[in-house]
Design a protein that fits this description.
Layout: E1 2-3, H1 7-19, H2 25-40, E2 50-54, H3 58-72, E3 78-83, H4 91-102, E4 107-110, E5 120-126, H5 138-150, E6 151-157, E7 178-184, E8 200-206, H6 212-216, E9 222-224, H7 227-233, E10 248-252, H8 259-271, E11 276-281, H9 286-292, E12 297-300, E13 314-317, H10 325-336, E14 341-343, H11 345-353, E15 365-366, H12 370-377, H13 383-397, E16 400-403, E17 409-411, E18 417-419, H14 432-445, H15 450-469, H16 477-496
Parallel strand pairs: 2-3, 2-5, 3-4, 5-6, 6-7, 7-8, 9-18, 10-11, 10-13, 11-12, 13-14, 14-15, 15-16
Antiparallel strand pairs: 1-9, 16-17, 17-18
Helix pairs in contact: 2-3, 3-4, 7-16, 8-14, 8-16, 11-12, 14-15, 14-16, 15-16
Length: 497
């Protein structure tokens, strides 16, 4: 897993890499620029008109190198603007300016915003990057404002210019508002928060050759989940295994008006590999389940109180459950159970309403969305504060908290936070959380640890959505539930290589 680090750490890694390897700073800049270009050409076609805006520091040096490398890739319609409001040029900036002049790419030095064309197509922002701190000068505010208003598409180098990435200035931001940001070596933790959409709509990161041994030695409590991390955790299905090998999952979900949530949760659990699945529902809906998904067994509500929880290997409760007296009785049963449990949706709503947070069994998994989370633990003014609370509560309650977001945060009992890297906006539809609950619970039933079930479940659920997004613009939850098994197959095939 990649540890999230501060920009100061990245700067130190830059110095460390130069001092402890045979590479010079100008060559490291070249590597970074090549990595940026290789990602950029997947975003912007070769015939587009591109304008590169550069400061005079190393971010500007990156911009000059990027302009040169794009020309060498066949991008002919490139203009470069150097902002003159900086006192000194770095040495690497000077070298790249000389290289650019040798290619006869036109360079224009500007002092004011009115010197910028009124119509801009694709802009590469290489003015300040991630090193910015403090307050923007008025001339930069004017220039950034004009770029924001007139550019069709903006791609920032490492970070949008004007953004203090470690302490974002949310209230009075006057910098670049990028469509896409290509960061160096690590994703920026702030880009995981919905507030970051003000600064960049999308992002990616590229490896530029910094010393990874050094970076991974830096202590961190936040980690980015990558494919290889999930591959290392997946357990292959072995010869002579049977349905009992993969656990028995009990689902306490659904009510007359929201039985679809129960169906989606059960379907997801089935395609995520649980060996046996029993859904506790009103007997009037037994035929619905038998028709919809005949593999799912059923348990009459009245029989739940007489049922020993140890009959099952895992439990999930809450999807479409409702909050009436009958639902509260089911929650009370679940809170007393001794098996690993996922608490979701209405189970969380009842826990917050009745102040039952301290009744949650240890080693449980909570899967709240933003509103459910704030009902549980109080309102928050920002996602950064919300995440700090999630980190704290996971330790206090000795459970895993899955704080759902486009980049979902998985908070473990030891204070570590894992950021899920899969999923996309096409999945923003009702029922998606029910599918996630079924997926996580299925891995819990199969014997995975609480943390691993949450990590794998979130990743596979998001990957299923990503795989479907290659075909569909909008991805219904029911399709994601079915896709999970196919996406898992792809992961297992990669694991075997």
């Amino acid at each position: 897993m990649l540890n999230f680090v501060s920009n100061e750490t990245i700067r130190k890694a830059d110095v460390y890499t130069i001092e402890n390897s045979s590479i010079q700073s100008i060559d490291l800049m070249e590597q970074a620029s090549k990595a940026f270009v290789n990602r950029f050409i997947r975003l912007v076609k070769v015939h587009e008109k591109i304008t590169v805006f550069c400061g005079k520091g190393n971010n500007g040096g990156d911009g000059l190198a990027i302009a040169r490398l794009l020309r060498m890739k066949g991008y002919q319609n490139i203009s470069v603007y150097i902002l003159n409001g900086f006192l000194n040029e770095t040495n690497d900036f000077k070298i790249n300016k000389e290289r650019l002049i040798a290619l006869k790419i036109p360079i224009v030095v500007i002092n004011e915003a009115n010197e910028i064309p009124n119509e801009l197509n694709v802009v590469i922002d290489a003015v300040l990057g991630s090193g910015f701190q403090g307050v923007l000068k008025p001339f930069l505010v004017a220039i950034f404002n004009k770029i924001n208003q007139n550019a069709r598409y903006i791609v920032s180098v490492d970070a949008p210019s004007g953004l203090d990435i470690d302490e974002p200035n949310l209230a009075f931001y006057q910098g670049i508002k990028a469509d896409f940001t290509i960061s160096f070596q690590r994703p920026k933790l702030f880009f995981m928060f919905p507030e970051s959409a003000l600064f960049t709509k999308e992002f990616d990161f590229v490896e530029i050759g910094l010393d990874e041994v050094y970076l991974k030695s830096v202590p961190s409590s936040h980690f980015w989940i990558q494919e290889q991390d999930i591959l290392s955790k997946l357990k292959p299905r072995m010869p002579f295994s049977h349905k009992g090998t993969y656990g028995h999952l009990l689902l306490i979900t659904g009510s007359p008006n929201t039985m679809g949530a129960a169906l989606l949760c059960a379907k997801s659990a089935l395609f995520s590999g649980a060996g046996l699945i029993t859904s506790c529902i009103d007997q009037n809906y037994f035929s619905v389940f038998n028709t919809f998904q005949p593999e799912i067994m059923t348990l009459e509500i009245e029989d739940l109180e007489k049922t020993e929880s140890t009959k099952f290997t895992a439990l999930a409760i809450g999807s479409g459950l409702g909050i009436d007296i009958s639902s509260k009785n089911k929650l009370d049963w679940a809170l007393k159970s001794t098996i690993p449990t996922v608490f979701d949706a209405d189970a969380l709503n009842m826990i917050s309403k009745e102040n039952l947070q301290n009744k949650i069994p240890k080693n449980s998994i909570l899967t709240p969305h933003i509103k459910e989370f704030d009902r549980l633990f109080g309102k928050h003014e920002s996602w950064e504060l919300r995440l700090k609370t999630a980190q704290q509560k996971a330790q206090e309650l000795d459970c895993v908290i899955v704080l759902k977001n486009q980049y979902t945060f998985i908070c473990d009992v030891d204070g570590k936070i894992y950021v899920n890297s899969t999923g996309n906006p096409s999945m923003a539809q009702g029922g998606m959380g029910d599918v996630l609950t079924g997926c996580i619970a299925a891995f819990l039933a199969q014997g995975y640890s609480t943390l691993d079930a949450a990590l794998i479940g979130c990743y596979v659920h998001g990957k299923a959505g990503d795989d479907l997004n290659l075909i569909y613009e909008i991805t219904p939850a029911s399709l994601v539930a079915e896709q999970i098994s196919k996406s898992l197959k792809e992961l297992y095939l990669l694991k075997e290589r």
